Structures are given as structure tokens and as C-alpha cells.
Fold this protein.
Amino acid sequence: MKYVLFGASKSGREALEYYGDEVVYFVDNFKKEKEFCGKKVLSLDEYMELPERPHIIITSHKHAVIKKQLLEREITDFEIFFKLYEHSDVPIMRVMTSDNWVNEARRLFNREGCEILEVGSRVVTGQKHRNLCERANYTGFDLYEGENVDVAGDAHRLSEYFDKKFDFIFSLAVFEHLAMPWVVAEEMIKLLKPGGYIYVATHYAFSSHERPWHFFQFSEQALKCLFPKAAGIECIEAGCADPIKGEFSENSHPTLRGGIVPGLYTFSMFFGKKVKEVENFDWRNVNYYETLGMYPPKKD
């Protein structure tokens, strides 16, 4: 398949590197030069005169204006370059990813005597992690009794259900359903042995589900705040995964309609280690500036 990249810009160069020889032209109404990165630059009018018009990939951040121009000319064979939906300042998980965290967990915790706790263990989507580490001792905790649940109860009072501590505590797609996730985070930390590990995967952006018990969406920075140094937790890795192509619908305000919503990711994840026991932990004593830095100043 052959492509035309609409936007002779930095993003256009990145798209050219991705699509390679399949790119035949650039289209740009404002570029004075007739060549960009070794490819001929056409105006939109020149593109319209081509005997065969290749598929257009919009690589300019002025995508809303370009979409309007294309639709006015009844051109519908186009898409927006997927990288425009992403943000370069959002860290992407590299180790404890959706595909690899199980392998890492087995490498670290599949041993005799290792105690593992899953918070939110009931089989809902078909996933079951009881055999995650065959040689370890697995305990499944959930609000309701059911398949893969050993202990049923309220995660906001998690530590009250156990008289032992764990080497690894993990939770998948649960934190968005917790009324007070900071309370549950503290409860998980209480049950973690010094030297133990914690892994949380939740949603950064996702469709509404299981209402009314769908409360929060989390960035990776939010998870860092829920598991801070002040509570004895050292962050090993925090980031996001699985970008979403977001776009404002026709029911949005006219000034937003049709615009893309970049920087949306399905999952945010945190992997940390408990390096010390903290007595009398108090959220009000946490120095969040140490974790995050200062709030971004107003730009002139």
C-alpha cells in the first residue's frame, strides 16, 4: 500500500521512518520547499490532480483543520498518524508490562515458602492467577466469594483478615473500583514483608464499567503517590501501556467536535519494593514534592 503524509514536519519525518518506502509524497499547503526528507511535497490541490490518489496519513498537529479541508473535498480515505495520539512525556512500561509481568513474577516469586496475595482475585474476565507461581503459596482475596477466592471481605480493611505477611501482593484492574484507594494502598503495605514487592495495574483511561462502583482513573504518578517513600516503598518501575485513539464525538461542544484527545493510555502500572517498615504512617506527612517535583509553572 502507498501513502501520502499530510504534514511536512517533525511528526511527518517520524511517520516516514515508520512507513519507509511505502510513502510516495508529502502534502503540505504551507511548505515553501518542494522536497522534504527526500520526498516531493505537493499542495492539496496538486494531490487532487493525481490520477491515483494514495491513502493519506495526517501527520500534522493541525489535524482538525486538515480533516475539515479533506472532507470539504469529499476525501474520506485518510487517517491520523497513531503517534499523534501519544505523549512523549508519558513513561511506557518496559519490564512489568501486560505481556511480561507474569514472567517476571515467576522469576522472582516461584519458590517454596513464598507467600503471594492477589487483591481482587475472583474470576471475572476469565483470568485466573492461582497457578502463577506453582511452588509458592497463593491466596486470593475478593469482595465476593467465588471462583479463585480464598478470603472474602472489604479491601479497605484488608489487614484485619490476615495474621501473616506476604512476599508479593498484586492487584489487577481493581483500584478504579475502590472508594478510597489510598486506604487500600496502606492496607496492602501493612501486609507486605520488608523486602517484599507490590504490583498494581489499573486504568489510566477506560470506558465506564461496573457503575456505580467506578470511581477513579490513575496516572503512573498517582500510583507513585499511593505507594510513596514515606510509607517505606521504593518505586522500581511506573508507567503506562496500551495507547488509546481518543476523539471528541459529534455530541461534543462545537469547538471540540472532531478533535483528537492525545495522551490516553489504557493501563497505568506500579511495581515497587518495601524497603522498610514505617510505624504510625500518616498521609499528611508525605512529601509529594519529593516524588513529583513542583507543579508545572504557568507558561508565559
User: Anything to note?
Assistant: The radius of gyration is 24 Å. The longest helix spans residues 10-19. The longest strand covers residues 192-203. The mean pLDDT is 93.
